[in-house]
Structures are given as structure tokens and as C-alpha cells.
């Protein structure tokens, strides 16, 4: 009897089927190798064309090399799990489904891309609606080797000659071990998930679902689908995927590349503003204040306030007359300038200089300023010294009173003032080029914070924010919370980028250059007349790639995307929605949420901010129409099946959901394991030790990841406790707080002190609901409260 090459045991019917599929997979990989060689040859051909030496040949080279490189990268990604599915149709046709499309040299289909319309029945067909499919087969591969397969029989009446193997591919896939990063579900997408993935591309897709329903995976596969079907539309301006925190983005970062799409930008809410990153979660009371829409007018007032260290008086001398602007006049000028400079404060120095010169001229005229007579040698210095003496209340140097002189011309006055170093120094100090962090740091001053708060924030709340920012931002390395990032983006929108002149005229031609320094930009100016004869030749592709880079200093403006995916959207604050809205003014959206998991207190305010962010462009009707702005189409879906948790774990999370949101309906779990969660009562002060004991036990029970989920840092739990718990544990064990656990899943989870989590904020029960739904196989809960032991058991 022959033996299986995979298992070494006597061959079975299943082994024969695996061997037959292996031959088909081998032929697909052979053709893939040929396609790779063709892509590499195209890259070489592109470089050969550049040898022509013309500018046109360089552009042709760039276009050819760029396209060939993209193709080569997609082919490399497809090497892992190239073929994963097969459809046998009632017509007798057989279709193989894979990560990318593969055709023979004669253009006959060998493998169909999973995103193509011809692959749709692989995901949509059911026994109730087989769509012409008799058998759906899922192939499990390791490298290039088929190691297992599972069949779903959809039309038994047409299956006379087909061999059916296994108990069903989908349920078999659910019990697989987790390896610390999310995997694609391209081989096991279910019908309700596929409807979301292939939803129309012309509007907003809103996906709701309980924990474990596959919302995140569906959203990521939708990105791959959109880029495949609408490459020109979404590929040029890019796709942004936003997650709640860095752990989450690290968890999902492999999914899109595994689907052949590496062009999407992946960011957490703490990494959306270049140059700064969030490292901590704000305590719930501070997060509520920072995330509220009331911060919009507060930040406007903070930007318009007198900058720290700015001078209170401007004094210049012209024709022996000292001209002053006091703090009251200067504040009035500042208010007028800010009304005219919304969104361009940093670029307004030229306007500021003009306003100050105008105010100085008015004061000069009010004071009876006169036009000097032609000065004899040395008289210029005499006038200057007499002005200084007059400022001090002293008489003229020669002891005589001079007759009034004719009024000076305004142009001469302004030219003289601009050349004075005192004016340049004042302008730089009174209207400094500020960064968003400068403004936020300034609010650590209690008096300044109270002025900015006005009537929009109670004084105790304003003082609490000032104290928090003074502590977090006062050191050399500022400690930023996730809500701070949205505030920095808001301030950045108010300040605008600093001025960047397109050319530098020689110093003698520029009235705003004093001693080689441009007083408007602060840049050193050299009198350089030389320009290179030939500038660097770049292609449109290079310029597009350069414009889309957001991690360097190539561009001053924030990028705007064609499509934005927002995961865990129920937790976003109004200020975070404003931050996202600036990046998608013309975008379509995919929004993934579960209102039952929301940690944000004012859901109505957050919902209004979301609507403002994702709303369509204003109506084009002229006149003062009272019609609301036109909205893009919206497609709403609800995922109702829990694919993550066993029925035993789902029962515990359902109990917490009932406490958090009475009457809410949990998703339906589809698999049982017979392993019941461990709900353990431990003495006060022993939770940390008990958690390490539980981890040691679980390490012997599961092969994959283990999550130890603890309360947010506060008086009872500190960052040091997290480090102590994690010390010496294997890499597959993660210790993280309840907010960092958002969106993640583990083979086993240990929940520490649920009573503390529930009491930490008004939404604590909902946060706990998220925590207890992270495990796929085993769950342990450690509590010091007998009430919680009874509630969860």
C-alpha cells in the first residue's frame, strides 16, 4: 500500500485528493516563477531605455520601472498561499481562487484573483443559494505544499462524481492557533462579510458588529478590494487605515501586504500628526475634557493670546521722535490680525509688519511728527541722540528748542522703521513662528489656561488641564496622550505652515531683510545670483510618491486621502473626528464600530462630529438655500456572528454586556470547545501574583498568544505593575491595559481585577466587555470581589 508524502501513513482518499491538488498548485507556482522573471526583465529594459540620454527616455524609464516594480512586489507577496480555493460548478467548469490572478502564456486562466467578480461565488454561495456551485474546496498550504483541504457541499443533487472531504473549511479555520499578528481571512470570508467587502465604492460604508464578528478583517479586505477594482481612483491619492493605538496597528500591519496591497497608509490615532506620537492613554476625566468639542474655541483663544515672552511695548525713533505702541494698542492689533489670519497665523508676518507700521505711522502723526531738513554731516546721529534724550524727558543736546519741521512722507517713515534692528527684533518676538506643541505647552500656565477657557470650561476643569499639561509637557521629552494629538492637529490648522518663499531676492532688493536676516521668516539670506543650468529631472510618478510621503519634511500640508478606514470608531472623541475630517474632505469612508463597546461618554456629540467629518460636499445650489448639504450615499451593514469566541467564553461576555447595556443582543457564537472559563476569587493584594500563576498554567494549555489585561494606570495599578507582571515571561505573552487591548485577540486571556476596570470611568463596564471578549480558546478572570465572582460564573 502506498503512503502519503505529507503524513507518511497509508494513503487515503483525502491523500489522493491532496496529491491531485498539489499538481495543480505546482503548475501555478511554475507559471508564477515565469511571471517574476518577466517582471525583472521589464525592470532591466526600463534602465536600458534610459541609455538614450534624453529627458523623455528618463521619464519612460521611470514609468516602466515603477510599474514593473509594483508587479514584482505583488508577485513576491503571492508566493505564500498562492492558491487557496477551488470551485466546482454545475456547468462542469473548475475555478481555482488565489491571492492574485495567474494566466498561461496563451492567456488562459489558471488562478482567479479573489477580488475578481468570477471569484465572488466562492464567498457568496450557500446551500440555500448555491449560485451554480456544487463543491467549494479550501486548500491549506505550508509554503508551496498542500497539507490539508476541506470541502463544503453546496448542491448535493449535482455531486455524483465528486469526492467530499472534511467537516467544513470554515469551522476548522476558527480553532487555529494565533501567532501574535492578524492573518488575512481571504480563504474563509463568509457571505455577510463579503457583502461588506464588495459594497459600492461611491460613499460611506458603516459596519456594526459585536466583538469577534470580523469587523477589522472585513475592513482591511475591503481596502484590498477597492484598490484592485478602482486602482486609478484610490491609488493616486491613497488610502488611510486608522486604528485606536500602536499595538493595534502592529497587530494588523501584515494583512494588506499579504493580500498584495502595500500602498495603504496605516496609522494609529496617536501617530497622525508628523513629528509627534502619543505614548499614554489619558485618564478618563482628562480624556473627556480634551476630546470635547468645547476645545475648539479654547484653542482659538490660546493661539490668539499674547505669546509667552512677547514684549509689551514697541518703541522706534524717526526724525528725532520716539513713537510708542503700548500693550493695549498691541493687543487690539493682535486681535484684528487673528481675525484676518485664520489658518495662516505663521505665514502672516508680512501682514503683521504692515499693521504695525500703519499703527506706528498713526501714532507718529498724532504726536506731531515732522519731516527733517536735509541733514548736515553728523546731523543724523544728532537726531538719533535727541530722540533718545526726548524719550527720557531731557532737553536737546545743544540746549535750544528747534522749530517744527514739515511732516515726513509715509514711505520714508516706513522705510526708516523697517531698517531699525529694534523693529525687526520686536516683530520676531511679538509674532513668533510657533509650533502646535509651543501653544499646547503654554496652556500649562494656569492664568493663560483660564483666559483661553473663557466660559467654555469650568475653572476647576481648566485648572486640572493646566496642571496636567504643566506636568506632561514641562520636561525635555513631552509625554503626549492620544487626545493631545488631536489638539495639536487642531492648533496646526489654526497656525498654518510657516512662510516659505519660492525665491530669495538679493538682500538689497528686499525691504524685510535686515543684517542678512529675513524678519518675516527668520531665515539667513545670502545674495546668490547663481542658479544651476539644469534642475533635477523628475517624473510625475516620483513627484506623486514624494507628495504622498507624510513621515518626512517634504511637504508642509497634511495629506488628504481618497478613502479612509476608521476602526473602533465608537471610541473616537469629537476632536479626533475633526482631525480625521481634515484628511478626508473629499474621501469615501469605511467606518467600523460597535456602540456597545464605546468608551466615550457623550455619544451624541461624537456622532455629530462624525457626521461633520464624513459628510458630502455642500450643495451647489446658488443663493441662501435652507436645504442641508448633499450627502454621499451611505451603506450600513451589521455583522451578527461571533467567529472569535467559543460559546463558553461568549456566555461570560454576554453577562458583562447585560450589565453594561441591559437588553443589548450579543452576536451568536458558532463553536463550542467544552472548556469553561475560570472565574477565580483571590485575596486582596494577590491579583498580580495570581496572574503570573495563571499565565504559567495557560502556557501549557495553548500554543499561541496569551494576553494579560489589566486596569488603566491609577492609584491601584501603575506602569511599574505592568512591567513587574511582564518580567521574565515568554514573548508570546503580552501584558497590556484594557484600552490597549482594543481590537486584539489572543488564544488565551487573563483579566485582572474586573471590579477595578468597571469602576474607573462611567463607561467602565463597556470597557470590561471588550476585555473579556479577547480570548479565542481559554479565559481566566481574577477578582477580589465575591460579587463579581458570582456575576461572571
From TrEMBL:
Gene3D superfamilies: P-loop containing nucleotide triphosphate hydrolases (3.40.50.300)
Keyword field contains Amino-acid biosynthesis: no
Binding site for ATP: 209-216
Highest taxon of the lineage: Bacteria
Region called Disordered, residue ranges: 611-634
Pfam families: AAA_19 (PF13245), UvrD_C_2 (PF13538)
GO molecular-function term, one example from the UniProt record: hydrolase activity
Coiled-coil intervals: 18-45
Entry annotated with the keyword Ligase: no
GO CC annotation: cytosol
Annotated ranges, domain UvrD-like helicase ATP-binding: 188-646
Name of the molecule in the record: UvrD-like helicase ATP-binding domain-containing protein
Source species of the chain: Thermomonospora cellulosilytica
Amino acid at each position: 500500500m502506498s503512503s502519503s508524502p505529507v503524513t507518511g501513513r497509508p494513503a487515503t482518499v483525502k491523500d489522493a485528493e491532496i496529491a491531485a491538488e498539489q499538481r495543480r498548485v505546482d503548475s501555478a507556482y511554475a507559471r508564477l516563477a515565469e511571471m517574476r522573471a518577466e517582471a525583472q526583465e521589464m525592470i532591466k529594459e526600463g534602465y536600458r531605455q534610459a541609455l538614450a540620454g534624453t529627458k523623455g527616455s528618463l521619464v519612460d524609464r521611470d514609468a516602466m520601472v515603477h510599474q514593473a516594480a509594483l508587479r514584482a512586489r505583488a508577485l513576491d507577496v503571492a508566493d505564500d498561499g498562492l492558491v487557496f480555493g477551488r470551485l466546482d460548478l454545475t456547468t462542469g467548469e473548475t475555478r481555482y481562487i488565489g491571492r492574485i490572478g495567474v494566466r498561461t502564456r496563451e492567456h488562459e486562466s489558471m488562478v482567479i484573483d479573489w477580488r475578481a467578480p468570477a471569484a465572488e461565488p466562492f464567498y457568496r454561495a450557500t446551500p440555500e443559494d448555491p449560485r451554480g456551485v456544487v463543491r467549494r474546496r479550501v486548500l491549506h498550504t505550508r509554503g508551496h505544499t498542500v497539507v490539508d483541504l476541506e470541502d463544503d457541499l453546496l448542491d448535493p443533487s449535482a455531486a455524483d462524481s465528486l469526492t467530499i472531504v472534511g467537516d467544513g473549511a470554515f469551522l476548522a479555520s476558527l480553532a487555529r492557533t494565533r501567532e501574535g499578528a492578524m492573518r488575512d481571512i481571504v480563504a474563509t470570508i463568509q457571505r455577510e462579510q463579503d457583502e461588506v467587502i464588495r459594497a459600492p465604492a461611491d460613499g460611506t460604508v458603516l459596519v456594526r458588529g459585536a466583538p469577534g464578528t470580523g469587523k477589522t478583517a472585513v475592513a482591511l479586505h475591503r481596502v484590498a478590494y477597492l484598490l484592485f477594482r478602482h486602482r486609478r481612483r484610490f491609488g493616486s491619492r491613497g488610502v488611510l487605515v486608522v486604528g485606536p493605538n500602536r499595538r493595534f496597528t502592529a497587530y494588523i500591519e501584515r494583512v494588506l501586504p499579504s493580500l498584495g496591497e502595500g500602498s495603504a497608509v496605516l496609522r494609529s490615532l496617536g501617530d497622525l500628526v508628523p513629528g509627534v506620537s502619543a505614548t499614554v492613554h489619558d485618564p478618563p476625566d482628562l480624556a473627556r475634557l480634551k476630546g470635547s468639542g468645547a476645545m475648539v474655541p479654547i484653542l482659538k483663544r490660546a493661539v490668539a493670546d499674547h505669546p509667552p515672552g512677547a514684549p509689551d511695548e514697541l518703541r522706534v525713533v524717526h526724525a528725532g521722535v520716539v513713537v510708542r505702541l503700548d500693550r493695549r494698542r498691541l493687543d487690539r492689533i493682535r486681535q484684528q490680525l487673528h481675525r484676518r489670519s485664520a489658518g495662516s497665523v505663521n505665514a502672516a508676518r508680512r501682514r503683521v509688519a504692515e499693521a504695525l507700521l500703519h499703527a506706528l505711522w498713526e501714532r507718529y502723526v498724532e504726536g506731531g511728527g515732522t519731516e527733517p531738513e536735509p541733514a548736515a554731516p553728523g546731523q543724523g546721529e544728532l537726531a538719533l541722540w535727541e530722540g533718545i534724550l526726548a524719550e527720557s524727558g531731557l532737553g536737546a543736546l545743544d540746549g535750544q528748542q528747534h522749530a517744527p519741521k514739515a511732516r515726513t512722507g509715509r514711505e520714508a517713515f516706513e522705510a526708516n522703521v523697517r531698517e531699525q534692528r529694534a523693529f525687526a527684533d520686536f516683530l520676531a518676538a511679538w509674532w513668533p513662528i510657533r509650533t502646535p506643541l509651543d501653544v499646547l505647552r503654554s496652556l500649562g500656565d494656569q492664568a493663560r489656561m483660564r483666559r483661553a477657557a473663557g466660559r467654555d470650561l469650568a475653572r476647576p476643569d481648566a485648572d486640572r488641564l493646566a496642571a496636567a499639561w504643566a506636568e506632561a509637557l514641562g520636561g525635555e521629552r513631552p509625554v503626549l496622550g492620544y487626545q493631545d494629538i488631536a489638539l495639536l492637529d487642531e492648533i496646526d490648522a489654526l497656525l498654518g505652515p510657516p512662510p516659505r518663499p519660492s525665491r530669495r531676492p538679493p538682500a538689497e532688493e528686499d525691504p524685510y531683510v535686515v543684517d542678512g536676516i529675513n524678519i518675516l521668516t527668520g531665515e539667513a539670506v545670502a545674495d546668490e545670483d547663481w542658479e544651476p543650468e539644469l534642475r533635477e529631472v523628475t517624473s510625475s510618478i516620483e513627484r506623486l510618491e514624494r507628495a504622498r510621503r507624510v513621515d518626512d519634511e517634504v511637504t508642509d500640508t497634511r495629506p488628504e486621502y481618497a478613502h479612509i478606514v476608521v476602526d473602533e470608531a465608537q471610541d473616537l472623541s469629537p476632536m479626533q473626528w475633526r482631525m480625521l475630517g481634515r484628511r478626508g474632505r473629499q474621501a469615501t469612508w469605511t467606518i467600523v464600530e460597535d456602540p456597545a463597546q464605546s468608551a466615550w461618554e457623550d455619544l451624541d456629540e461624537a456622532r455629530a462630529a462624525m457626521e461633520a467629518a464624513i459628510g458630502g460636499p455642500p450643495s451647489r445650489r446658488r443663493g441662501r438655500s435652507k436645504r442641508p448639504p448633499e450627502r454621499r450615499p451611505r451603506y450600513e451593514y451589521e455583522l451578527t456572528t461571533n467567529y472569535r469566541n467559543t460559546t463558553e467564553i461568549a456566555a461570560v461576555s454576554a453577562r458583562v454586556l447585560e450589565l453594561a447595556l441591559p437588553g443589548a443582543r450579543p452576536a451568536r457564537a458558532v463553536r463550542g470547545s467544552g472548556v469553561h472559563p475560570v472565574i477565580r476569587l483571590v485575596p486582596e493584594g494577590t491579583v498580580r501574583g495570581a496572574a503570573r500563576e495563571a499565565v504559567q498554567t495557560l502556557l501549557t494549555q495553548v500554543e499561541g498568544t496569551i494576553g494579560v489585561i489589566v486596569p488603566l494606570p491609577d492609584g491601584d495599578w501603575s506602569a511599574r505593575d505592568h512591567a513587574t507582571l511582564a518580567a521574565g515571561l515568554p514573548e508570546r505573552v503580552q501584558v497590556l491595559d484594557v484600552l490597549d487591548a482594543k481590537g486584539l485577540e489572543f488564544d488565551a486571556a487573563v483579566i485582572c481585577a474586573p471590579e477595578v476596570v468597571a469602576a474607573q470611568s462611567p463607561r467602565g463596564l463597556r470597557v470590561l466587555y471588550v476585555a473579556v471578549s479577547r480570548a479565542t480558546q481559554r479565559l481566566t478572570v481574577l477578582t477580589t470581589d465575591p460579587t463579581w465572582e458570582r456575576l461572571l460564573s
